[in-house]
Amino acid sequence: MKRILVVDDDDHLRMVMKETLVSCDYDVETAESGSHALEILKEQSFDWVITDLMMPGIKGTELLEKAKELYPDLGFIVISAYGTIDTAVEAMKKGSFDFITKPFSISQIESRVEHFFSYRALEDENKNLKRRLQSHELETKLIGQSQAVQDVLYNVNIVASSDASVFILGDSGTGKELIAKAIHDNSERASKPFMQINCAAVPETLFESTLFGHEKGSFSGAYKNQKGIFEECDGGTLLLDEISEMPYNLQAKLLRVLQEMKISRVGNPEQISVDVRIIASSNKDIESYVKDNKFREDLFFRLNVFPIKISPLNERREDIPLLVDHFLKTFKKKYKYKNKMLSENSMNMLMEYNWPGNVRQLQHVIERAILYSAKDELIEEKHIILEMQDNKSDMETGDSGLSLMSLADMEKKMIYKALEQTNNHRTKAAELLGITVRTLRNKLHQFEDGGEDFKDEM
Fold first, then answer.
1. How many Cα atoms are found within 13 Å in the side-chain-facing hemisphere of 356?
2. Which CATH superfamily is domain 3-128 in?
């Protein structure tokens, strides 16, 4: 239910507007002054504020500015007398959606409110559409001709139209987020939010607040009411990435939310109904986590209604040429190269590599190779840098027969290799290495080279 705050020092007008809006199924609160409205706004959240412009103390424009500091997306409409229209127009420049001149009819209020919420719904829909149109091609489909990829695509088509919980299992870099996004985009929730949270990246003390929100003053640092990701994602799809890393003591609360679809903000026992589809993912052996009592069995069964397993790249090597072709097209366009192709030896090199980082690693390797090759149309073996290779010609060999190199020596070797490939151009070398020019310069000084002969300019 949409919440509206009506602010006016005229008791009769304030009550009439409240009764009218309540009859239209809005949740309405009132305030008799701008200062009273600010007190309410600091304690409660609203979708829209209707305020008189000229009031004792804090005027409508000042209320608008202060409220926007608390809630930038809060909608406003200003009620103005004839002689203050210029001021009302100024309020619109500061963020008011519209203004109404006195005297006005009740039907005008109803019409403006309906128009505002229709506009906001259209605005949200346009944002979602724009987000989908701008998404990278890899976020809408999984590239490959292997049976493993075809099985995944088949499963996505089956489960997308349902509301079943999905558990995606796969190694890092295999495209778990891509699959979750594809499920959302092909579901009836496609026009609603798709959000994700990396459970491994959230501090344990902030986990409950991040998921369910909090009330002002509920803990140190809670300076205002805050919605959690479940409320923000209402009507849409939520990806709980790396779910195996969720604190054990919070798993019971998540299970209860999934069963009842009701959440309570930290510091407020009041329950709020939500409608969220859950997709979970993990790169761990989740069943072993369950056996070792690191993950609740009942929560796992609740999430694992429809499991999808993504195979690592080294188990579907026939997809590598298709992926390489896709990445070549993508990065040729990005870096404005007309012609780029891999030599036969380069492709063989990619086909034989183990790919511990899977598709994401292949993507980075191709981007680096295009940068290394510069104006050369043919990408050769020397342009391809593969991490963690067992290459004895480039590595020092220990007594055990294993290829050994310290991290410092490997770092130094990679930096010199990047400088060699870019003709001692520090800016380009830094881009290849994924570091800043300043960091590169500091490393060179550590190597006692100083960097005087290197180029800084593009």
1. 4
2. Response regulator (3.40.50.2300)
